[in-house]
Amino acid sequence: MTSWLTAGLRDAVTSGRLARGARLPATRVLAADLRISRGVVVQAYQRLIDEGLATGRTGAGTTVLGNGPGTEPPSDRRRALRDLRLPLPPAENIDLDLSPGVPDLSAFPRTQWLRAERAVLDGITAADLGYGDPGGTPRLRAELAGWLRRARGIRAEADDLIVVGGVAQALALLAQTLRADGVTAVAVEDPGSRGARDQMTHWGVRAEGVPVDDEGILVDRITQEAALLTPAHQFPTGVVLSAARRRALLAWDGLIIEDDYDAEHRYDRAPVAALQGSAPEQVAYSGSVSKSLAPGMRLGWLIAPRRMQPALLEAKHDSDLGNPAIPQLVLAHLLASGDYERHLRTVRRRQRRRRDALLAGLREHLPSARVTGIAAGLHLLAMLPPELSDTDFADRAAEAGVLVHPLSWHRRHPGPPGLVIGYAAHSPDRLTEAARRLGSLSTADGPPA
Q1: How many CB atoms lie within 10 A of CB 16?
Q2: Cβ burial 283-322 (10 Å sphere, 16+ → b, else e)
């Protein structure tokens, strides 16, 4: 009875039916009206007081403090997400969301994951479920070390890996560690990943843009103590860091932060080895399963120079005590059984067909665009004629139901216009339709100004 009355009074306060300053009935009066014992009312009033929703004073009765309309602004989650530049559900008129970086979530290997999870749960121990190493379970670190050695040319042992909640957390830990060492600025690619820039800036390390050309970042323009880049498949241009630039970067004496964000997706060429394998004591390497499994898994890895590892482990421990153990063990099982690699082969074939459909569609319907970055990844870049505005073009595309990113969104400084177009989440026929709509924008009423 007490819980029932408390819940009713609480709802009346939080919904605003009982306004701030309203006096509740005397306990004897309310008890008589409800035909319940006075003790129940006394206890319910006391709970409201304990929760900070009311105040009571001898002789003055119980008064509502309130937590309803007028006491604090209503929640506006969508606005908060937009201000943080986080993904939002597309507008109602968008039926083709071609945002870059969105993988094919329908390809998630549910059967293999469930089989691996059952195997893990069958063999799990009490130690697996306790507070373990904040850097990750030994089993996953060992499997990742072996897989990254084979697939990416990484030079690292299991103890060199820190399991993180995606590349975003890897950058957060690195930024905190660099800031504690007095590093206040990091070079970033321009154009480059907006999310990576924001992550570093949030943790007190200023992101300063360095131009990118057809060979990658202009190494001779880096003046900072650290540089964050995507050398194997530059985001968003798709450029591979040239051999000459790789040599120049490795001869530079700063910290290289290597974001290997879509290393698994290669179609027309052999994968370029990670920089880390050439200079383990100069490169902090990070990757994740966000593009190969799903972003919602929040599973990634960080391999930093050994001199940095104690501080990074401390930052990871202070952040969250470590990632959830069971998903780590399931991923380790998928790696050990070969199911993860088989899944990647299936996804690569599927994504190649989608890329080919979009590429053919753009060549037919938007021939004025120069398409680059097609050999790898989950997106391509369509460079527009210089007289066009990519933001205006993207706005008109959205009106036609197609969501794409203008290249200018990813720039720090002005540059040629382009569209960053993701293709992983749609079937070939839908991508052909998207290309047709984009092409119609440059012919229906003339080109966007």
Answers
A1: 14
A2: bbbbbbbbbbbbbebbbbbbbbbeebbebbbebbeeeeeb
* Contacts of 387 by beta carbon, 8 Å cutoff, 6+ apart: 447
pTM: 0.80
> Phi-psi bin for 383: left (phi > 0), alpha (psi -120 to 50), beta?
beta
How far does Cα 1 stand from its chain's mean position?
46
Residue type, 400: A
Calpha distance 169→288 (Å, rounded):
10
Per residue in 356-410, pLDDT tens? 999 999 999 999 999 998 988 899 999 999 999 999 999 999 999 999 999 999 9
Higher pLDDT among residues 27 and 67, named by residue:
27
Distance CA 260, CA 441 (A): 35
Q: What is the CA radius of gyration of the chain?
A: 27
State the amino acid at position 211 in one-letter form.
Answer: P
Match 């035909």 to its residue by tokens: 35
Residue matched to tokens 């400084």: 413
Order across the sheet with 300-303: list the strands: 161-164, 300-303, 283-288, 255-259, 226-229, 185-190, 206-213, 216-217
In sign, the C-alpha dihedral spanning 142, 146, 152, 156 is: positive
Cis peptide before 109 (omega within 30 of 0): no
Going by the DSSP 8-state scheme, the letter that residue 308 receives in this structure is G
For 396, residues 6+ apart whose C-beta sits below 8 A from its C-beta are: 441, 448
Listed residue (51, 65, 52, 54) closest to 27, CA to CA: 54
Nearest residue to 245 (alpha-carbon basis) of 260, 234, 259, 237: 234
Signed CA dihedral, 370, 373, 376, 379: sign only: negative
Token duo for residue 423? 């293709």
Residues in the chain: 449
The structure tokens 């007081």 sit at 49
Which DSSP string do the residues of 175-226 spell out, in sequence order? HHHHHHTT--EEEEEES--HHHHHHHHHTT-EEEEEEEETTEE-GGG--SSE
Q: Any alpha helices (H) in 298-385, and if so which ranges?
A: 309-320, 325-337, 339-365
Listed as own residue / partner, the contacts of 199-207 with beta carbons closer than 8 Å and 24 or more positions apart are 199/168, 199/171, 199/172, 199/175, 200/171, 200/175, 200/228, 202/172, 202/175, 203/172, 203/175, 203/176, 203/179, 204/175, 204/176, 204/179, 205/175, 205/178, 205/179
Distance CA 157, CA 145 (A): 6
